[in-house]
UniProtKB/TrEMBL annotation:
It is an enzyme of class 7 (translocase). Its cofactor is Na(+). One of its GO terms (cellular component) is plasma membrane. It catalyses: oxaloacetate + 2 Na(+)(in) + H(+) = pyruvate + 2 Na(+)(out) + CO2. InterPro entries: OadB_MmdB. The chain crosses the membrane at residues 12-35, 42-62, 74-93, 105-130, 213-239, 259-277, 289-308, 360-377. It comes from Pseudomonas taeanensis MS-3. GO terms for molecular function: decarboxylation-driven active transmembrane transporter activity; lyase activity. This is Oxaloacetate decarboxylase beta chain. GO terms for biological process: sodium ion transport. It is found in: Cell membrane. Signal peptide: none annotated.
């Protein structure tokens, strides 16, 4: 009996605490949503499974020599995982729609409004002294970057400014990206008329291969010289795109957008999941992060739509305001949502390629915003 008792006391069930059981249930819920509802399955499945592993008592997989902790030390404090994902995204991205209509850069820039508005809001809440909501400047900046709807950027900034908030911020960022089809349409309809949603845009001009090759080089040098803190993100994004457009290194481009990004996505997801332990996630501050992240995302969506309406006041070639919502950088889901809402107003109105312009600009904009925050806060 003594040996049986000792065996029982060595099990995870004996040491399981209510908070750990709750977090395991939450992580299983993430896996369910990813599989059944299709909510960002490439990341929510690894994140959810990593969270399950992190909350198994006694196993210590997210501590010390645990495999999840080793993944974390290699990939997040160094920024390696988010940067490699940015390179893969660059290798999958076509800058053509943005180069064909450079005005869409303004839409991508406007959509970053949600980031800086939320930064101010988080600091204002902290000043009120609400228990559990005492955000520092570094924490507020990490929460605000959720408004860019760019998971790797959110992780990159948070790992440098507030690594203890990595779990809730990563989950919020990827959850809102997954919920783009539910969150954005009501905002888009509320801020536009049916006539505006039915605007048919002119066909995009052809973009030469030379333009596509030169642009990532110019982008990297321009951002790197003006804002060095954004150079890692923008540089890897531009490098991946150069591999795609050069035409001379297809093997490298293919590896970047397929095998490499898939491997890193698995490691990144498990690592983020390892930060969903009960002691770090089940706090009042987590609820504040989720609420402020939603505000940031909605603010960015609204700002992009309103910027498009403002540009139409001064332009003869009208822009359909719906494409402004794609400036939040959730590529390519936000562009698809713009196209879907546009088709509801006009079945002959295909906005997908037009929306890809601000969508790509939003990726650049969120990386630049991250550089600004790291420069002023870090």
């Amino acid at each position: 009996m003594e040996k049986l008792l000792k065996l029982w006391q060595s099990t995870g069930l004996y040491h399981l605490e209510p908070g750990q059981a709750l977090m395991i249930a939450v992580c299983l819920g993430l896996i369910y949503l990813a599989i059944k509802k299709g909510f960002e399955p490439l990341l929510l499945i690894p994140i959810g499974f990593g969270g399950v592993l992190a909350n198994i008592p006694v196993a210590g997989m997210a501590e010390g020599a645990g495999v999840l902790h080793l993944f974390y030390e290699v990939g997040l404090p160094t920024g390696v995982f988010p940067l490699l994902i940015f390179m893969g995204v660059g290798a999958m991205t076509d800058f053509g729609p943005m180069l064909a209509n450079p005005k869409t850069l303004f839409l991508g820039a406007a959509a970053q409004f949600g980031i800086f508005a939320t930064l101010i809001g988080a600091l204002a809440i902290a000043a009120l002294g609400i228990p559990g909501m005492e955000f520092t400047l570094r924490e507020a900046a990490s929460i605000a970057i959720i408004g860019g709807a760019d998971g790797p950027t959110s992780i990159f900034v948070t790992a440098k400014l507030a690594p203890h908030l990595l779990g809730p911020i990563a989950v919020a960022a990827y959850s809102y990206m997954a919920l783009v089809p539910l969150i954005q349409p009501p905002i888009m309809r509320a801020l536009t008329t049916k006539e505006e949603r039915a605007i048919v845009m002119q066909q995009l001009r052809h973009v030469s291969q030379v333009e596509k090759i030169v642009f990532p080089l110019v982008l990297c040098l321009l951002v790197g010289m003006l804002l060095p803190d954004a150079a890692p993100l923008v540089g890897m994004f531009a490098f991946g795109n150069l591999l795609r457009e050069a035409g001379a290194v297809e093997r490298l481009a293919d590896t970047s957008r397929n095998a490499l990004i898939n491997i890193v996505t698995i490691a990144l997801g498990l690592t983020v999941g390892s930060k969903l332990s009960a002691e770090s996630f089940l706090q009042l501050k987590t609820l504040g992060i989720l609420m402020l992240g939603m505000v940031a995302f909605c603010g960015g969506t609204a700002a992009g739509v309103l910027m498009a309406k403002l540009m139409n006041v001064f332009s003869d070639n009208k822009i359909n305001p719906l494409i402004g919502s794609a400036g939040v950088s959730a590529v390519p889901m936000a562009a698809r949502v713009s196209n879907k809402v546009g088709l509801e107003a006009n079945p002959q109105n295909f906005l997908l390629m037009h929306a890809m312009g601000p969508n790509v600009a939003g990726v650049i904009g969120s990386a630049v915003a991250a550089g600004v925050l790291l420069n002023f806060v870090g």
